[in-house]
Amino acid sequence: MMMTTAFDRPQILLTGASGVLGSVIAAELGPVADLTCLTRRRSVTMPGVRTLTGDLSLPGLGLPERALADLASRTDVVLHCAALTAFTSEPGASDQVNRDGTHRILDLVAAAGADLLHMSTAFVDRGAEFATAASSATASSTASPAAASPATDELRVRSPEHYLRSKIAAEEAVAGSGLPHLIVRPSVVIGDSATGAISQFQGWHQMCAGMITGRLPFLPADGSASVDCVPVDLVARAVARLALAGVGREVADGSQWWLTAGPAATTIDATIDACMEIALDRGLAVDRPRTVSREMVERLVLPAFGQSAPPRLLKQMLEGMELMRLFGSQHCFPRRWPTELGDPGPDQATIESSVFASLDFLADTMALGRRSEVA
């Protein structure tokens, strides 16, 4: 099924509207669409926007049968942004929300005869790296048991692996559904391009806060590796344009959109430089974090200190390695913004200025040091 008429004021269902990205998308679409937001806990308080309380992990999205039928009857587009992203979640929880929840959204899309814009993640492009790393780690531990700490299994080290697998499975379900759809893959979402504001700090922010305060003495990554991040407002604007354009009209059915910095991405070294500049501006005397190759950490640092390191420090080291496998890579993401809809995406200068705006907002909000007075 493919629609052939443009939307004047479409009726859009947005899931995940209370999230970091979803809340900004809701603000973009609220004035120009008949918007209904499906949320699990927090309501969306915007003029003219309806909120429904539901749950992706429940049959029928946790809605009464009549309410579900009414929703289907008045929905032109489903913009599915809701997902469980916490690394702390159990594998089953990620599958229940991200994979199984997407199947329930597909049922609604089919019943509504609607278009689907499915929000995925650019990091599905790195799923193979986690699979390779897991097999390498198994081989390494078999060959050299001393290389790993026997306490490692008890630390419950957080990893994005289960999240990525669930998002890949969700994409596969969407692609194989036969329903009109787009797949959108943003990279690391940072703050507003002008103000740096964001509703909730993400892993990137936590990493940068560690560097600004001197709590992160080294990063298990190559300094030249890319850290692909994009401002939340620019991603929301692009998503809104795609949702309003409609599948099968200005945008091809089944198309994939990589809302990333791509070749314009900043690097680990440049991110460290920015954090050190913020620290200096805030009067924080911290040492510049060192970049240490992952191979060196695995072959030298963990075997030497893994047995004797405090569990908390060991866990931080191992989780840092997981984060840097996700964030820092020599491989650039593909990049595709809706240029045909008037949105070419951010250039390198915009990415760089957005990073500084986000770091300023982070330092202000977390009260990291004190901003230098300019005479």
TrEMBL record:
GO molecular function terms listed in the Swiss-Prot or TrEMBL record: alcohol-forming very long-chain fatty acyl-CoA reductase activity
Pfam families: NAD_binding_4
Single GO biological process annotation from the record: long-chain fatty-acyl-CoA metabolic process
Xref: Gene3D superfamilies: NAD(P)-binding Rossmann-like Domain (3.40.50.720)
Ranges where the Thioester reductase (TE) domain occurs: 49-239
PANTHER family in UniProt: FATTY ACYL-COA REDUCTASE CG8306-RELATED, MALE STERILITY PROTEIN 2-RELATED
Protein name: Thioester reductase (TE) domain-containing protein
Native source organism of the sequence: Microlunatus phosphovorus (strain ATCC 700054 / DSM 10555 / JCM 9379 / NBRC 101784 / NCIMB 13414 / VKM Ac-1990 / NM-1)
